[in-house]
Amino acid sequence: MDVAVSTSARAGRTSRPKPISPIEAAIQSWLEILPPELVANMDSYLKNLLSKAPKRWVVYPPMVLLPAGSFGEQWWEAVGPEHVASRYAAELWTSLLENIGRREGKGVLTHLAVNSGIPLHKSLIQGPGLPDSEKNVLRTPCGLIMLHGDFGPSLSPETVPTERDFDEAFWVSTKQNGITQVWAPRYTMFSRGNIKEKARLLAYHRSDQSLVSRRLSKDKIANDSAVDLYAGIGYFVFCYLKMGLRRVVGWELNPWSVEGLRRGAIANGWSVETVRSNESLGHVDGQIVVLLEDNRNAAERLWGPLGHKLGSIRHVNCGLLPSSEGSWEMALEILDGDGWLHLHENVGVKDVQARTAEIESLMVCWLKKTGDERSAKVEHVEYVKTFAPDIWHCVFDVYISRLGTQP
Fold first, then answer.
1. Which of 22, 323, 329, 368 counts the most CB atoms within 10 A of its CB?
2. Rounded CA gap, 158 and 134, in Å?
3. 70-79 per-position pLDDT tens digit
4. CB pairs under 8 A, 24+ apart, for 81-87?
5. Is residue 102 part of a domain?
């Protein structure tokens, strides 16, 4: 009897309607302020607009970031007359921010932008005329479409920012794996997809690691350091410090990234010092030391006054894409004892095995060339995220060790 009642009750139960998307709600309310002649056939008009509207978003308080292509030409063509965009767009953006803010519960959201890919070459930033060899080494997010809010002064990527520029810029933050990161979206990128690699680094030396070589207690690494040759806003710098290492030294060319790293370090409660090109390292003693300069002389810089403050360097990170190969031999030189090189590269999925063998062979060759008796082994290849069809952002973990020893 109880079963029959229960079944009957379930049969008569009506399913709850799917909650309306904040973007859909914003578009619906926005239509109410448009000229009546535009929305004479509301149902078909709304359906057409919603079919072309974005379905996803990411919140980096106080900014909402929409996926590439959102509210582009096709969407505004579906709206109708050209004057509507300039006259009524602000109301749409305000409504969208309010609705997403209520859904996310992350405070008042004030800025709205559309994401875009990071050009590999300056010619795609400044127009034709520059050779492809002029790479966008600063990873400037010049394609960012700013829809609503003041994102800070418009500065050329070549402009050296002042303290006033930093103060007037718009900064956002997010927390991943318990670590806060800060950046100015108009001037620097943020790679959300690196969250998996960050989590992997944080667990690198746990006692349950399948690789015995990695099972190191915090006491064992407490006086050791890491080096990040492409520090960015601190993606991996912060992970090495939270891992339990004593100090992290990083190199970064983009002053906006260095400032984001500095602000992020402070937000996490870590001491940080910024050193500019040709400045001495003798006085620095922060948990994080970031050098605003090219990393080509990194090895020599580390042999100087800072060297005795680093202990053993356990990790060297080479996080440049599409390939960091140009820094690998120097990274091996920097890693003067037992430890790991983390080599980032975009690799075709069918080529990973061959590339693994090539990397190991390169390391062995470089060690032999200098009479170094350590061994080199690619312990693991981590597939971080897809970069393009059948192309993966991979990290090759190369373990460098004295023969017959464990760290």
1. 22
2. 13
3. 999 889 988 8
4. 81/38, 84/34, 84/38
5. yes
Q: What is the DSSP letter of 103?
A: H
Whether residue 4 is predicted with pLDDT greater than 70 in this model: the reply is: no
3-state secondary structure of 102: helix
Last residue in a domain, options 80, 98, 113: 113
Distance (Å, whole) CA 287 – CA 273? 8
Task: Kindly report the backbone phi and psi dihedral angles of residue 396, in degrees, each rounded to the nearest multiple of 5, phi listed first.
Answer: -95, 115
Model confidence at 118, in pLDDT bands (50, 70, 90)?
Answer: low
Q: Is the dihedral of CA 93, 99, 104, 105 positive or negative?
A: positive
Q: Are 304 and 281 in contact (CB under 8 A)?
A: yes
| Count of domains for the chain | 2
Q: Which two tokens stand for residue 37?
A: 């002649």
Angle between helices 83-104 and 22-31 (to 10 degrees): 140
Give the pLDDT confidence of 289-345 residue by residue, as tens digits.
999 999 999 999 998 878 788 889 999 999 999 999 999 999 999 998 899 999 999
> How far apart (Å, rounded) are the C-alpha atoms in residues 121 and 115?
18
